[in-house]
Write a structure and sequence with these properties.
Belongs to the GroES chaperonin family. Keywords: Chaperone, Cytoplasm. The protein has 111 residues and is mainly β. Helices cover 14% and strands 34% of the residues. It has a single domain (9-108), classed as GroES chaperonin (10 Kd Chaperonin, Protein Cpn10, Chain O), CATH 2.30.33.40. The strands form two sheets. The protein has a six-stranded antiparallel beta sheet. Strands 3-4 form a two-stranded antiparallel sheet.
Length: 111
């Protein structure tokens, strides 16, 4: 991808939503809710403080994050649907090792 966000903006690829409900019902694309987590694809250099010094961002490319339901602007870059938002719209970073163990536990419960 040849896109570099400016200032404190972040480019995010939204995580894939569940296709089935907990009860096993298949949910069509137009009815399912968009997930509120995603992977950081690119980050800007950072914001400027009152003195003009550059303040780097806390997130980096590859981080798995949580964001608000109505956060960001949806864009299409290289045929891929992405979100661009400010770092302030990000609620937190998910630890990937914990996320992997939670998926494993959920899969075992479902089986």
């Amino acid at each position: 991808m040849k896109f570099r966000p400016l200032h404190d903006r972040v480019v995010i690829r939204r995580a894939e939503g569940d296709i089935k409900s907990k009860g096993g019902i298949i949910i069509p694309d137009n009815a399912k809710e968009k997930p509120q987590q995603g992977e950081v694809i690119a980050v800007g250099p950072g914001a400027r403080d009152e003195n003009g010094a550059l303040v780097p961002l806390d997130v980096k490319a590859g981080d798995l994050i949580l964001f608000g339901k109505w956060s960001g602007t949806e864009v299409k870059i290289d045929g891929e649907d992405l979100l661009i938002m400010k770092e302030a719209d990000i609620m937190g970073v998910i630890d990937k090792s914990e996320a992997a163990t939670e998926k494993t536990v959920a899969a075992k419960k479902a089986a």
